[in-house]
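Class, study these two lines:
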Amino acid sequence: MSTVDHIEALKAKHATLEHAITQEVKRPHPDDDVVCSLKKRKLQIKDEINRLTEPTSH
């Protein structure tokens, strides 16, 4: 898998997590632990995307 493919896969996972967070928050009694866990995973993916897309400095 190329870096570009990997980044695209991460972006898709990020979008899926965003959707899951939105759905959980819309529930009558959202589970705060689930929302927190989803947001944490989403942030980890965002950090990885940023790490892969930032130019390296040598």
Remarks:
- The chain is about 80% helix and 0% strand.
- The mean pLDDT is 94.
- Residues 3-53 form one domain.
- The radius of gyration is 14 Å.
